[in-house]
Amino acid sequence: MKKRLFLTMILFLFGFSAYACDMLTTASTTTTFLTSSTPASTTTSQVSTTTSQTTSASTESPIIPSNYSTLQDEIDVVGIPATGNVKVLVFVVEFSDYPKEDTGVSVEDIELAFNGSSSNLDYESLNSYYLKSSFNQLNITADVFGYYMADYPASYYADEYEKLYAWDYVHDDWLYGEDEVTYPDSDLIYELLSNYAGDIDYSQYDQNNDSYIDGIYVIYSTPVSYESGSDLWWAYQDIYIYEGDTFQNKEPYYFAWAGTDFFLEGNENLNARTIIHETGHMLGLDDYYDYDSSDYYNSGGLGGADMMDNTVGDHNPFSKILLGWITPLVVTESMTVDIAPFLEDGEVILLIDEWNNTIFDEYLLISYYTPTGLNELDKYDIFSTSGIIIYHISAEIDQGYDDSSSYYSIFNYNNTDTNHKLIEIIEADMDNDIFTDGYAENSDLYQASSSFVSSSYPSFDWYSTLELFNFTIHINSIGNTIASISIDFDSGN
Q1: 39: which residues sit within 8 A by CB, 6+ positions away?
Q2: What are the extents of the domains in the chain?
Q3: Which of the ends of the chain has fewer CB neighbours closer than 10 A, N or C?
């Protein structure tokens, strides 16, 4: 019997897009880190350090952690592995009431959006984006099949989808019983996998050998419901609902669902941003925007400035730490650290009172942003100037998903409806634009000679203790290749 989903893992593609005090701090050490961005398990041997004498003989330097758990170690089923050479399945589907000729998108276009090189596209393909974002640690290639003519018209699948959520307000219950509903996206995936079983070796698509197909993408010909129409015709990531269905001993699980219309958005020759965003979910990442823009008391986050927010730019340092693509420089006491631009080396400072050998904790991340690389084309939607970003992270997972939340996540907090944010930018200008549902802006970046002093930011403190941060962060200088940052503990109040 089919089990009705009271809450699905649908992750919709939508986006939204606080004045720094000049206060010098005293640092005991200057440490320069020029590291290759490598997973946590291999970072220690890759790091080279240069320590120069300042006002003290202290030799304190950041902790280079290793052997800690990453996101895919904590989730029950891994979709697309975060590293390695991964093959995914892409099915392009047409319906009798929306034939492929009406889409303006060919199978060759879909192939290019998934597998093309940067030189072939105004932005990036799925493959080229993740090669760059992962520092060449994740190579996703797609095998594209289609157009496939679905067994039923699009209207049939939309009608079945509406039944899932039809509510009987008179009797305060579901309008249709469990034996009267079906799951049209999973039904279509069953149809596709069954149809192609004689042509495809599904074992090729289980890179981590966990008996689940790593990633399935369904690209449909139906017009996307931008303003009206069924929510089925949108972009989301979900899980295949019929547990136990196997195809050549492989079970479908994670899938992404998107219309051909998304590839024609904007002024780019072929737009792969939607599938890049949904692939972030296939890797296990959350959305970082607020689903409910009306709850101003609980807004905030990244102000649109991220691939997992408004589908722009690179993945932020938190996401890359979660996926094991970079290893943070952990700072727990006063020191000065020099870091390179994040896009070049993946360097980021993780600032915390005490390192407990886990990234699933509360801390600040400090990185040197530049409007280059994966950020360049989107710089006017993110930040068009260089500067230092400070993120407040609350990534605890001891409680996990709460039934009272409308957002499914392994984290205790999310960016939609919890009192604390999973990730948010501490705005350098302190105008709280992001907090009141605004977009990120250049003035949110810290510049040379500016400081973060906790007592100047009454809305920011340690969530866990409700105490002000017990340190000051001072940006000494920002050069083309290095930013110098001093952290002074016990001076933040």
Answers
A1: 70, 83, 137, 324, 325, 327
A2: 30-74+295-489, 84-282
A3: N
Percent of the chain at pLDDT exceeding 90? 74
Q: How far is CA 437 from CA 289, 409, 463, in A?
A: 10, 22, 21
Element (H, E) at 147: strand 138-149
* Residue whose entry in the numeric block shows the structure tokens 């079945």: 160
Separation of alpha carbons 55 and 33, rounded Å: 20
pTM, entire model: 0.88
More confident: 455 or 325: 325
pLDDT tens figures, 166-223: 998 998 999 998 889 999 999 999 999 999 999 999 999 999 999 999 999 999 999 9
CA nearest neighbour of 424 among 396, 460, 458: 460
> What letters, b where the CB count within 10 A reaches 16 and e where it falls short, cover 366-395?
bbbbbbeebbebbbebbbeebbbbbbbbbb
By the 8 A CB rule, do 77 and 201 touch? no
User: How would you classify residue 222: left for phi > 0, otherwise alpha for psi between -120 and 50, otherwise beta?
Assistant: beta
- The CA distance from 423 to 428, in Å, is 16
CA distance 210 to 193: 18
